[in-house]
Amino acid sequence: MLSIWVTGGGTREPIDDVRWIGNLSTGRLALELARRAARRGHRVTAFLAEGVPAPRSKRIRVERFVSTADLERRLCADARTAPDAILHAAAVSDYAPRPVRGKVGSGKARWTVALRPLPKVVARLRRRYSRARLALFKLESGIGVAELMRRARAAARRAGAQAVFANRLEDVGAEHRGFLLDVATGRTDEATTRTGAARLLVRWCERGADGATRSGA
User: Fold this and answer.
1) Is residue 104 part of a domain?
2) DSSP 58
3) Distance CA 9, CA 112 (A)
4) CATH number of 178's domain
5) Domain count of the chain?
6) How far is 156 from 162, CA to CA, in rounded Å?
7) Rounded to an integer, what distance in angstroms lies between the CA atom of residue 163 and that of residue 197?
8) How confident is the model at residue 158 (pLDDT cuts 50, 70, 90)?
9) First CA to last CA across the chain, in angstroms?
10) Could you tell me the maximum CA-CA distance found in the chain, to the nearest angstrom?
């Protein structure tokens, strides 16, 4: 039995007290990941954005987040015990505004909002839980599969991730086509549904545990 963390849904970065910018993410893939891991008998903690429905399983512990900073605080809290694997499927903002206190009134002819870059949550995860298996999720748009995989490999190398699930916005909808790249072996597997993607990713976690057991034997 493994301890598996799943992140899902999109972060919301406040503009003022009532407005925010965010990412296009339903959290549906994260829910499939959490359910699949729980059905396989693993201990699952699902870090889900507000608005993503909680899975109905006693095997899944749910924690909520809103902003990128909120997600990072929850993932890297001092009391956390390191998981065996992290499936980091959340759509985390790369940029955020400096929020204005109160509510900016309507009727302005123009309102310019400047965005600042945010630190990468995945970099903190890699440092904090250096022994955990880490899978990234890379969503792109308007490019071919070959370029998608090139960018996915580059992202995994930068983050120190052992795997990356890459897909294109054009292939996400009722179905969910994507590719799981195992960085160490170079193996690539294709999924055409969320259920298929979850099966691939949870099995990837389990293969890592099997390998660690053999190495320690």
Assistant:
1) no
2) T
3) 27
4) 3.40.50.10300
5) 1
6) 7
7) 13
8) very high
9) 18
10) 69
